[in-house]
Every structure is written in C-alpha cells, then in structure tokens.
Amino acid sequence: MNKQTKLLIIILLLVGSAYYMVSKKPWRTADKAVNAFAIEDTASISKIFMANKRGEKVLLEKQANNEWVVNGKVPADLPKIQLLLSTLKQMEIQMPIPASMHNTAIAILASRGVKTEIYAGDKLIKTMYVGSETPDKTGTFMLLEGEDEVYSVHIPGFVGYLTPRFFMTEIKWRNKLVFNYLPDEIASFNLNYTQNKAESFSYQKDLFAQQNSLKNASGELVMADTQQVKVFLSAFQNKYVEGYYDDSTFTPIERDSLFKLSPFCELTLQSVQGKKHQLTFYVKPIGDRTKERYDEQGNELPVDPEKFYVRIDHIEQIASIQEYAFRNILTKLSRLKKR
C-alpha cells in the first residue's frame, strides 16, 4: 500500500467520523437552545393551567394585587407558586432522550404527563408536557407541544427531578393561612370543649368592653382577667396549618369516619368585618412520625400531644395543626377568669 492510498484511507476515515459525529450526535447534545423549556420573564406570567389524563385540572391565576388563586376560588400558597415560577425560569435541557428510550418516554408522557400551559396576559406563550423522572433520577422527561423529541430537563446544581413541583391536587396548592387578626378585629369567639364543658367559654367584644366579662358554656357572665384576655386575643395573628391531607393520604371514607367522632373542641370566630371561621379539632393517634410518644413514667401516650387533625370551615379535606402554634388560642376559661 503506497503513501497516497494510506493518505486517502485516513482522509476517508476522518470524513466518515466527522459525518457520524455531526449527524448521529453520539454524545447527545440538544438541537435546541438549552433554555428552550424555560420562561425567562416569569413576572409576565398571568396564569398556569395544568391537566392530566386522569381528568385532574389545576388553574393558577395571578390577581391584580399579585396574589394567586387556585381554580378561581382558593387562595394559593405563595411559597409553592414561587417555587414553580423559579422552576420555570431555571430549568434547562440536560440532554435529548436516546432513541432507544423514545417510545418509553412518549408512553410515560401520554399516560402520566402533565400538560402545562403558560400564559402572559391572555396569550399562550408555551405548552409543555411534564413527565416522570429519568432512570438516573437527575432529570425529568419533558416534551414541547407540536414537537417529537423528548428531552431530559433539569435545574443545574439541583439533584433530583421536577415532577413534584407540577402537582395536580387543589388542596395542596391552598394557602395555609387560617386567620390573621389583631385583637380589635375580633368581634366574637366561642370555644367549646366537648368533653370539658366547664372550660368552654365565649368572648364578645362589646360585652368585654362594657363589663370585662366572658360567658361560660351555660351563657352565664364570668368576670375576666383583663390582662389574660388581651394575651389570648393577641394569639390570632398569622396562624397557619401545617398542611392539608389530600385523597391519596386521607381517603374520603377515612375523613367521614373522623368527622363522626366526638371532637376535642370546636372553635368559632367572627371578625368585625363579618367573616366567620369554624374549626373542629380532633385528637391525632400516635403514629410512626410522632416525636413525643411516652409520658414521664415511660407509658405510651394515647394520642399525639403535638398535633391535631382539624376540619376548617367548609373544606372537606383534613388539615394538620401543630399544638404549639395554637396553644394560646386553645386556652381554658379557668385561665381567663378573674381570680
């Protein structure tokens, strides 16, 4: 083999290798810009609509005051909205899905994907399908509407997948605030301990202002300790639930069973603006995650001393409330009456 032949073979090999590397892309870089799925100006986003094959739908809408509502009726949990917006801004293409996985990825998106529409004003600016995690759990299957290639999308520096940020349960998007009132904003309050009527009481702003009195469970006047009542009334600011249980963790049958039990107490509050709140507290059994399980003698406690199950207003789902957050609200008449 002469030198010219060797040179020709080498040139052909180089050209063939270059063609393969360019056309086949064995290192799997994306044809698209790395930020093809991202929304650079998340401040312009006015609403986000998500739907899946199970018929679940969530509509998140920004109001004129920059607060968000869920499905046109429920105040949204701002930290979760902010997390979703930051996700839309920061996510990048990690790599295209290999051809060998294409059909699997498409099947996942078709059966479990969340169709996500992003709007600025009334204009639809992007539609994408968000699937489950990739096999290495460092990316998320995603597809832009109208296109064929599925990509692994991630947030640089974040180890994990993004699917949990596109959840479909309305109650999980709900704002956790229960109420936020200054003392002068509370018109009336009633606390009924179903198993301890002697400690039940009601507060009426006008009655207290005129006579420094509360009422016991029988409606009789009880002279109040003014300072203790002021401490009590100051406890209604920025009160939040720990979280809400959706149907996957607390089924409708389990909820109905709980609602039939005798509650620990019932709370009713009305603001001076006329807004009414009703909370029903139920004891929470000891569970695997209960931190304080035993009393000072080493006996296992019958109920969780740190948390309550709570039904709030007209909401069917059950919330979890930490005892220490509501301790000064769940007070007793014996503490408030004048000695």
Write a concise synopsis of the structure shown.
The chain has 339 residues and is of the alpha+beta class. The protein has helices at 3-24, 78-90, 102-112, 170-173, 205-211, 226-233, 252-259, 323-326, 333-336, and strands spanning 47-51, 57-62, 68-70, 74-75, 92-96, 114-120, 123-133, 140-144, 151-154, 177-179, 186-193, 201-204, 213-216, 221-223, 239-240, 243-244, 265-271, 276-285, 303-312, 318-322.
Describe the structure.
The protein is an alpha+beta fold. The protein is built from nine helices and 20 strands. The chain is elongated. Strand 8 and strand 9 (151-154) form a beta hairpin. The relative contact order is 0.10.
For the terminal residues, how far apart are their CA atoms? 114 Å
Strand content: 25-35%
The largest beta-sheet arranges its strands as 4-3-2-1-6-7-8-9-5
Tally the structural domains.
Answer: 2
Helix content: 10-25%
Given as residue ranges, the uncertain stretches (5+ residues, pLDDT < 50) are: 18-30
Overall form: elongated
Helix/strand/pairing class, anyone? alpha+beta
Radius of gyration (CA) equals 29 Å
What features would you highlight for this structure?
single chain; 339 residues; alpha+beta; 9-stranded antiparallel sheet; 9 helices; Dna Ligase, domain 1; 20 strands
Topology:
Blueprint: H1 3-24, E1 47-51, E2 57-62, E3 68-70, E4 74-75, H2 78-90, E5 92-96, H3 102-112, E6 114-120, E7 123-133, E8 140-144, E9 151-154, H4 170-173, E10 177-179, E11 186-193, E12 201-204, H5 205-211, E13 213-216, E14 221-223, H6 226-233, E15 239-240, E16 243-244, H7 252-259, E17 265-271, E18 276-285, E19 303-312, E20 318-322, H8 323-326, H9 333-336
Antiparallel strand pairs: 1-2, 1-6, 2-3, 3-4, 5-9, 6-7, 7-8, 8-9, 10-15, 11-12, 11-17, 12-13, 13-14, 16-20, 17-18, 18-19, 19-20
